Amino acid sequence: MDRRSFLTRSAALGCSLAASPLLTPVSFASAPGDNRLIVIVLRGGMDGLGVLAPYGDPAYSALRGAPDLGAEGFVDLDGFFAMHGALRPLAPLWQNGQLGFVHAVSTPYRDKRSHFDGQDLLEAGGADLKSGVARDGWLNRAMGHMPGQSADLAYAIGSDAMAILDGDMPVTRWSPDVDLALSPQAIRLAQLVMEKDPAMSAALADAFQLAGSDGDGVAVQGTVDDMMAMLQDNMTARRSSRYEVRLAKFAAQRLRKDVRIASFSLNGWDTHAQQTRLLDRSLATLSDVILTLKEELKGPAWQRTAIVAMTEFGRTARFNGTKGTDHGTGGAMILAGGAIRGGQVWADWPGLSEDALFQRRDLMPTRDLRAYSGWLLRGLFGLSSAAVQQDIFPQLELGADPQLLL
To answer: Which domain of life is it from (predicted)?
Structure first.
């Protein structure tokens, strides 16, 4: 039963029901074993040079200026790279070997720098756009090589799911800001009407369970105005900075149980103008999300968890006239979790002199982003090199093992 059918049936029953607009779907999948993988897609093109400043490169200060390495500025990591100050709350993870970075990477996407094409290729895991984008995502294809996978629920409400997990393998989908607001009488009426149809009755029960699984109630005592007020409160909460934390908490709840793979996206990385302000905010949100996942998973689950944050492309090496950066090529990935061999930056550094830049404007990518994702899949779930290079990431050369995991 899809969202439209459910809404139509509910309206016919005289129920007050609404679904808040969905910005960030979150998808889950179960997999064998105890290892967990969380893939966060940073939509908009994160500026890797701004997040992880290679201040040890003599050309960096000419492009961006010398970074402030003081208490309020960048955090020196190894004498060459410095982490943006908005990620300072993650410094203990770095010191404990549970945070790392990958630099000078990208998907095979080049030249056109379109968000839509870049994100399509990132989530599909393909080699190029010439033959069209695959209809399924690379995480879903990876599931096809794992024995015993299943979905804890097969029900979706809200907008389309993450393309990275779309495909034939079973995946549960949930939105943290889709809620049902029904009176107890309306709920009982719906149950009575559908009780003679096992499929519809089961779907209705799943809908109620899913809507209340994040701590919000489904039944509302009072008038239609009371119900609409509850929904308005939920929409307001979605616009607040705590929305992403709520998403991370729910993801961790499922990952503590049978779920082993989660993927969701964070917006706000398109920094054409006033990058300092925008990047501060987006990185602070990402920091909150990672720390929430750590706190909620805690213990053995966190020790078996790998988080990877990736983006469709990097940004220009130079600032533009509006104190921002434009769409670029090479960028960075962020890795975190108890399973990560952190405290280091993985990079085949190309340099930032003008002749070392891609098209004399962007950080030159020196390794395929997909290779790092492939090694994570191999290490966490025991997938073969052939499966990774031929099916999950077509035309990929994995190359040497970067030793991302403990």
So the answer is: Bacteria
CATH code (residue 315):
3.40.720
Enter the DSSP assignment of 369: H
pLDDT at 133: 65
How many residues would you count in the chain? 406
The answer to whether the beta carbons of residues 303 and 77 sit under 8 Å apart is no
Q: Given a cut of 90, is residue 164 above it in pLDDT? A: no
How much of the chain exceeds pLDDT 90, in percent? 54
- The pairing of strands 99-106 and 367-368 is parallel
* Position 194 in a domain: no
Tell me the per-residue pLDDT of 76-119, one tens digit each, with 9 for 90 and over: 999 999 999 999 999 999 999 999 999 999 999 998 888 989 99
Look at residue 234 and tell me if it is in a domain. Answer: no
Look at residue 20 in the predicted model and tell me its pLDDT. 30
Structural domain contains residue 261: yes
With beta carbons less than 8 A apart as the criterion, state whether 158 and 178 touch. Answer: yes
Burial class of residue 368, CB neighbours in 10 A (0-12, 13-18, 19+): buried
Which residue range(s) make up the domain with 336?
22-176+241-392
Q: Could you tell me where the DSSP H helices lie in 13-84?
A: 48-51, 60-64
Is the pTM higher than 0.85? no
Say which amino acid occupies 118.
Answer: G
Domain count, the chain: 1
Pairing of strands 26-30, 259-266: antiparallel
